[in-house]
Amino acid sequence: MNSREIIISLAIKFSGNWDAIYEALESKETPEKDELKALLESNPHKCLTCLDEDYPECLRRVFKPPFVLFYEGDISLISDKNNKVAIVGSRKYSEYGEEVTKHFAKELSKDFVIISGLAMGVDAIAQRTAVESGGKTIGVLGNGLDKYYLKDNEDLFNECKKNHLVLTEYPDGVEPTPRAFPVRNRIIAGLCDTLLVTEGKVSSGTSITAMLMLQKNGNVCCVPTRIGEESICNRLISQGAFLVEKPEDIYYIADVPIKKPVFEK
Known about the structure:
Blueprint: H1 3-13, H2 18-26, H3 33-41, E1 46-49, H4 57-60, E2 68-73, E3 84-89, H5 95-108, E4 113-116, H6 122-132, E5 137-140, H7 154-163, E6 165-168, H8 180-191, E7 194-199, H9 205-215, E8 219-222, H10 232-238, E9 242-243, H11 247-254
Helix pairs in contact: 1-3, 5-6, 8-9
């Protein structure tokens, strides 16, 4: 057995729990040969580990870098060489939120990989728009790849597995839980240098992702909303986030030149 196999087997054994995996590695826990074989054979997905050469540097800098990422699709999309922007926001979106998310995602997908959580609302709108516009997208889950739970977005999930990228630090069998989604958000924030919030409530997972971006000195960009509406966007802008009104603002903030689409259907 080698170190890579041991890390993967521990990630499966401890259901992706970072602290449990860390404690096992610290104590030099090594599965028995038969247990190791059974654990590895239970995983039908491809894996990227923190020991691999193509593990992106951006993830090594996050709080508790994931030991293993289970994935389906094109893992090269997470490369540090790609321009990446995360688009997040409210699950219960307004007509305005839908409109601006589609507008930004369509234009940004020409030169950026769009990252989000394949959740209801803004996440799915941004990623579906990227796919329909000929761009590329990464979906980061807070559960096992066999436990995708949104029937309305199942076609998008399957498309991302086939032609884009879906990844998670949780092995098969791990159900989605409220606790897992904030933990998942550190990966979304870690994969990019720029976060765009198009619409969101003050108390939400969006605020957690924005906080994580600020902690790593990343760019937090927000589309403003009308005065009088509860808005994480307006709150973040008042605290120093970039106010953006058009996709070109993101290019300027991210220091990415506007050019012709790099991803073609």
